[in-house]
Structures are given as C-alpha cells and as structure tokens.
Design a protein that fits this description.
This protein is of the alpha/beta class. Helices cover 37% and strands 20% of the residues. The chain contains eight helices and eight strands; from the N terminus they run H-H-H-E-H-E-E-H-E-H-E-H-H-E-E-E. Helix 1 crosses helix 4, helix 2 runs antiparallel to helix 3 and helix 6 runs parallel beside helix 8. The two termini are 18 Å apart.
C-alpha cells in the first residue's frame, strides 16, 4: 500500500533540512565569536575560529552546506496519538530525497557491504526517525545532522574504570568526560560539544546522549548536581590547551550537556556523543491536516 503524506509536510521538512544544513544556530555562532575574542589576537586559535565563522557566514549567504559532510540526519517527531507513523516516516524520506536533489545534502550514504553509493540518501536506517505520540494537537519535529568525523569521536565507558580512577559516581563521570576530550584532541572538528548520558543500556545510552546535542548552549540540566558537572567539565576541558582543530588555545569545548537514564545494578555506562562546532540542529512544526 502506498502511504502518501501531505505535500506541505514534505516541503516543511525539506526546508528544515536546507536551513539546518546551511545556517549555524545563533547560540553556536555567538559562542564561537566569544571564544575568538578570548583568544590571543593573531594566534592560530583565533585565526581558526575566524575562519569557522567566515565559513558559517558564507554558507548562510550562499545557501550551501556549511560542511561537506552533511551527516546522518536524525528526526525526532512529537505527534498527536492519532497520527499515522508511516506518513511521518515517508514525509521525512521524501524530504531527504528533495533536499538531496536541491544540493542541500551531498550523496552521503554508502551501502554495506557492497560499498555502493545510495543515489538519494534514503536507505534502511537513513534518515534515522524517532516518533513519540503524546496528548498534543500539533506535530513538532527536531532535526540533528551529525557528521562522521565527530561521530567517530563518540565513546562509551563502563564504570568503574581503574585506568581512570573512575568510580560509579559523578566524579567518575567527570573523569570519563575529560578523558573523552583528551582522546579526541582536535579530531572531530573541535571546538566540540559533549552530549552525555549516564546510565541506560549501551544502545539507549548512546541515543540519549546524541539527543542532548539538540539543547541550546545556554541550557542547563534541571538537576543541580548535573548542571554543576556540565559547568565544571566545560571549564576544565578548556584548560587542556587542545583548542580549535587541535591547534592549541582555550576554546576546546563549546558546551557540555548531561542527562541520565535508569540503569541495571550490574551496569554503569557513561555514553558520550561528541558533536563538532558545526552543531546543525533545527526545529519545525507540521500542520495536522489528516
């Protein structure tokens, strides 16, 4: 059976992809600019941050992707309970096809094991689509476009970890997060953002960590202890001297976002989703027409 979503949904989602791919969020731009201002004028860190900001400006002005790796597209939908999931899924897939045809996405999906390039960026698992039904009257959607370079810097810890002296507490989590930043160095296109989940199983922990990259940089965890952990890790990471692209400097991270999930007694996972400076996130609403 063919499930054809409303055309306005497809157009709205395609526009969301365009905007997310080509326009860096204002809070990211402001934090990059503040980092540049804080660096020594003329140093490699300041020059690198200036180039990043110039790139972001040109991408928005010319409507071209700000990074050649347009990433894995992950959609999070919140929809009324009566909404047919299949229509939302097909709308997202068709929007990806349209955005690819318009040049807002590069051909970025490779089949395994053949190694063949997928001609429209639509395949099993791509885009990644999550749908949650609630008692709401409208459909909201959030999009994250996360590139392969920063995805490669993701890491997951199982506590206790004797090599880090990390126990099953927030101090142990802090040690893990600073280790993750140190391991990444400039790889993953620093300055980065850490999305973190403490707890859960291995799969759900990573998913929750990735979703934290949707939070704005001025957002703090509602739990005071987690909020303090976010502030402390950000402050300490920026004293490591790694800097933009690993070239040295005081702007290694832009933000740290921590959430939790319940865990099993035997497990204590710390899942880290490393996001690059090109934190491409966007939000839109779909009119309920069916």
């Amino acid at each position: 059976m063919n499930f054809q979503p409303p055309e306005p949904w497809i157009r709205t989602l395609a526009e969301l992809i365009r905007k997310t791919s080509t326009e860096l969020p204002a809070d990211i731009v402001a934090t990059l600019a503040a980092g540049q201002a804080a660096e020594t004028p003329g140093c490699r860190a300041a020059t690198t941050l200036g180039t990043i900001l110039d790139n972001a400006t040109l991408a928005a002005e010319t409507c071209v992707p700000m990074c050649q790796d347009t990433g894995t597209l992950t959609f999070w939908f919140e929809a009324p309970r009566r909404t047919d999931h299949r229509l939302l899924e097909e709308a997202a897939r068709q929007a990806v096809r349209d955005a690819t045809a318009n040049g807002w996405l590069r051909l970025n999906v490779i089949d395994v094991p053949s190694g063949a390039q997928v001609s429209d960026n639509v395949a099993e698992g791509n885009p990644s689509i999550h749908i949650e039904q609630r008692d709401v009257d409208a459909i909201s959607v959030r999009l994250l476009m996360k590139g392969g370079g920063c995805e490669n810097m993701n890491i997951q810890y199982s506590l206790p970890d004797a090599s880090l002296g990390a126990g099953r507490d927030l101090e142990g989590v802090r040690r893990c997060l600073l280790d993750a930043v140190w391991r990444a160095q400039g790889n993953g296109c620093a300055p980065g953002i850490l999305g973190v989940c403490v707890g859960g199983d291995r799969a759900n922990g990573y998913a929750k960590a990735k979703a934290q990259l949707l939070r704005t940089l001025d957002d703090a965890a509602p739990d005071p202890a987690l909020a303090e952990l976010e502030r402390r890790v950000l402050r300490e990471a920026n004293t490591l001297g790694i800097g933009p692209m690993g070239l040295g400097g005081a702007t290694t991270l832009l933000g740290v976002k921590v959430a939790t999930l319940p865990r099993l007694p035997a497990s204590y996972f710390v899942s880290v989703a490393y996001g690059c400076w090109a934190c491409r996130r966007g939000i839109a609403a779909l009119k309920v027409e069916i």
